[in-house]
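Reading group handout, session on sequence-to-structure problems. Before we discuss, look at one worked example. The prompt was deliberately terse, the way you'd type it at a terminal:

> structure Membrane bound FAD containing D-sorbitol dehydrogenase

The input record follows.
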Amino acid sequence: MIINKILNVDDYYYDVFMAISEALTGFSVNELQATGLAETYYTHILGKIETATFIEFLNTSKTILENSYSQDQLKNSINAEIIANPSTQDIANSVITLWYLGTWEGAYVNDLSYKEGLVWNVMNAHPPGAKQPGYKSWAVKPVNSNS
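And the output record:
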């Protein structure tokens, strides 16, 4: 079983949300927690979609997580049971977008969601106007620079 208790949050579905977010984004639960937005995102989704729909998604996710004993099996199960299913596919795509871009249905959740979007880590960049790269960072060649 891949689900673990996270911090001191008592809501069982929150744990499932974090575990499936890890599987969908490729970032560890610790990295997702480090954004400072995990609980904010969870409660934001609860306020934006019907609770029954979100719980259906989380119950499907729970079953997949509990029955997957390898990363390959987990990946295949997510593709077959979540991504291929129209009733859960939209939520999965929205959860991925939420973590990477900090947006839900095209709008930022809050100011921090822009700054902490996972997309900046993937690009080895910083969010313009929000987090600066640091003093004298312009003197260091960019990662993967061809110059």
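Points for discussion. First: The helical segments are 12-25, 29-34, 38-48, 51-67, 71-83, 86-101, 111-115, 118-122. Second: The radius of gyration is 17 Å.
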